[in-house]
Amino acid sequence: MKNIFKTLIPVSLISLVIVYSCNKNFTDKPPQGALSLAALSNQAGVQSLLIGAYSMLDQEGGVTVGLQFGNAPDKWVFGSVVADDSYKGSTPSDQGDIVPLETWSTSTATNSYIAAKWQVLYDGIQRANDVIRVMALSSDVTAANHSQLTAEARTLRGYFHFEGVKLWGPNFPYVDESVNAVNAGTVKNSTSSLAKIEADLQFGIDSLMPRPVNKGRLNNWAAQAMLADLYMYEYKYAEAKKLLDGLIANGVNSGGVKLGWNPGGYFNNFNPDPGAKNSAESVFSVQMSVNDGSATNGNYGDLLNFPNDGSGPGGCCGFNNPSLNLANAYKTDANGLPLFDTFNDAPFPIDSSYAGNLDPRIDFVIGRPGISYLDYGHHRGSLWVRDGTDGYFSPKKNVYALAQKNNLTSTEASFWGPTQIVANNVNIFRYSTLLLMDAECELEAGSPDQALIYVNMVRDRIASNPNTWTYTNGTPAAQVVFDTKTYQYDKNQPNTVLAANYKIGLYPAGAFSNKTYGINAIRWERRLELALEGFRFFDLQRWNKDPQFPQDMSVVLNNYATVEKTRPSLFSVNKDAVFHKGVNEIYPIPQAQIDISNSGGEKNLTQNPGY
Fold first, then answer.
1. Across-strand partners of 503?
2. Which alpha helices (DSSP H) does 531-571 contain, by range?
3. Pairing with 495, which of 81, 174, 405, 534 sits 20 to 30 Å away (CA)?
């Protein structure tokens, strides 16, 4: 494996052009098809480089790793499977490198998923750096455009770096535009990455427009959300709260729409229909498209995460199946509030026979046997679940309706799963994400009443809109009409009833005055609201060392594993699996990168503890 710092494109091509220009031998010719630095050193060239940097938000297609399932921007492997939200799925040997990650092995420094993720993030970082490098050589970029383009590049660079910090810790090497193919081998573990990421994102806040030219491009509100997220990682709750207060009160998305709720309801945030994407609830999302001549501009990273049978969407491959633990978290009491202490006890909401109360979001997130699954009829149970280690369920947030097939799924790609490449955006921040972030900040700052208001806003959006809940027909063969524009089931058909005993309530006034109860409720709400969006592992990671309300990550996940070893999950055949406290909270640096970086005799990169 090559050193990622030395082989990234486009930086490597630009660096080669610069090195070549110093060679005076007239017999040397530039290779055909190579980028010309002169051709790029203008506003059009810089814009092209910036588009290349934006293209890495989907974390697919980089020159170093190509297309990789584990590089999905929703981090389904690293954020959901490695936590307690989902199982790997498929058969144990299929994509087998996920197994040691899911079961918290300490021998994963040579794991292909970790190596690919490291590489693709630095690909994005160096593409952002190229914008800054080449713009310095361009004479026709106006001052206003220079500020905007620099801000977009630096914000992207900050975002990619923070993604790396979440995975590998704050010593993830920070690489700016001064690092090139000549000096890359001297890059070391950073001690100042967080401060430099802060500076990048603050520059974006100061310089980005409130409304960019195109939907999906960064504006200063998106940069504020990113910096607030970083502040919370650093436990700088007061600083995060200031940004979040402004976002909630005044923020707009890249389309200039004031932030608020998706008018189609919760489930519509995961609808690939162009009329549903980039709604008021979308603070910032990775843009996906199909049938645009690219073949792979859709959500390739979630390609495997479909029911494993042709009677459902896609037809393969049964990965990222929601865990029974996650399904149990949606159980509610007589008041519609979570069962914090007994949620994981029997009976379980495995299928339509469950008679207890449930938060309606369970059937937006999880495909359960006997319950309507978009417009495919009822979930087919074991027919859609590939193996006995995969639990009972299928994911729903990344799929598409049958009526959308071949329109919002790819007809271009020539391989076994083109209809699993979908035009479904990946949400990085939603309006509800901001509310729950600010709820944490309010409680940390000593304002439990405001924290409760924010949590209840998230819950009331569901509770006050029963028309958006899941409906079904008592006859399994019957089809419930499903509106693909709003992702809602038609409740007005004959014999159509609610699919479960849905009950979601609001927390009563004063409930968060017990701050321990309040922080538990906020964290629970994050899990329910953001399930299978890649947050769970990194939330547990952050809460693990929270100064005021620490929650031991190893206790949470080892308790999870203990029970899962008795259930139809991968843990049932990996009974020695244990989360190693002080080790598995972050991932190992790819060993190949350490070996190459240190091959000159100087120790530049150091492995994370325990690996």
1. none
2. 536-543, 553-564
3. 405
What sign does the CA torsion over 439, 442, 446, 452 have? negative
Considering Cα of 53, then 58, then 61, then 64, what sign does the dihedral take?
positive
Q: In Å, how far are 58, 379, 390, 418, 523 from 412, measured between CA atoms?
A: 18, 28, 31, 7, 42
Percentage of the chain modeled with pLDDT above 70: 93
Give me the phi and psi of 409, to 5 degrees please: -120, 160
- Intra-chain end-to-end CA distance of the chain, in Å: 19
Q: Which of the four pLDDT bands, split at 50, 70 and 90, describes residue 112?
A: very high
The DSSP secondary-structure symbol of 31 reads P
Q: Do the beta carbons of residue 386 and residue 308 sit within 8 Å?
A: yes
Q: Rg (Cα) of the chain, in Å, rounded? A: 24
Residues contacting 212, CB < 8 A, separation 6+ = 218, 219, 254
- pLDDT tens digits for range 527-561: 999 999 999 999 999 999 999 999 999 999 999 99
Tell me the average pLDDT across 61-76.
83
What is the Cα–Cα distance from 223 to 48, expressed in whole angstroms? 21
Contact 314, 96 (CB under 8 A): no
Number of neighbours of residue 415 by Cβ within 10 angstroms? 11
Region for residue 106 given its phi and psi (left: phi exceeds 0; alpha: psi -120 to 50; beta: otherwise): alpha
Asked whether the bond before 272 is cis by omega within 30 degrees of 0, the reply is no
Query: pLDDT tens digit string along 430-454?
Result: 999 999 999 999 999 999 999 999 9
